[in-house]
């Protein structure tokens, strides 16, 4: 179904947000195009840092990398989440695999005009590997993980799949 080289940023985000969401996504259920939250995120992304070029690493697509080898990611949320940090870590790991040593990730939050810098360390590399292993474990599961509490599903484009009885 999926192997380690196929794991991208969306997989990482869903791993940290909701394993059920990840499991559904891995099986081709992709209602994101119907979500206002996703459309807002795309708009923020398209209008922020427009002079930078995205980097396509196959399964992983990062926003841009600067001349000092810092990965930059633009986020539409107003505050940092563990998923944001995990995505930055994952992109540094992917770059390392192709021989580019990233110094870390800088996460940009245009709505609040904040940035957060996360150095890429040996521990971060181990966590990135563990994240990939966890995604492969979710992918191999025959049944979906349990759904989260309803309050955690606010704004999720998968809500109808999880909460329609």
TrEMBL record:
InterPro entries referenced in this protein's UniProt entry, alphabetically: Dna2/Cas4_DUF83 (IPR022765), PDDEXK-like_dom_sf (IPR011604)
Domain named DUF83: residues: 9-163
Name under which the protein is recorded: CRISPR-associated protein Cas4
């Amino acid at each position: 179904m999926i192997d380690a080289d196929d794991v991208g940023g969306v997989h990482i985000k869903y791993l940290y947000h909701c394993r059920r969401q990840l499991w559904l996504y891995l099986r081709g259920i992709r209602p994101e195009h119907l979500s206002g939250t996703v459309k807002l995120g795309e708009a923020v992304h398209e209008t922020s840092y427009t002079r930078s070029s995205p980097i396509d690493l196959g399964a992983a697509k990062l926003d841009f990398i600067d001349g000092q080898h810092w990965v930059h990611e633009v986020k539409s949320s107003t505050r940092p989440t563990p998923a944001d940090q995990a995505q930055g870590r994952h992109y540094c790991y992917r770059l390392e695999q192709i021989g580019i040593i990233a110094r870390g990730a800088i996460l940009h939050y245009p709505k609040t005009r904040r940035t957060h810098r996360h150095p890429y360390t040996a521990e971060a590399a181990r966590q990135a590997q563990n994240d990939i292993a966890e995604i492969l474990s979710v992918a191999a599961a025959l049944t979906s993980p349990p759904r989260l509490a309803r309050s955690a599903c606010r704004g999720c484009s998968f809500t109808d799949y999880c909460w329609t009885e």
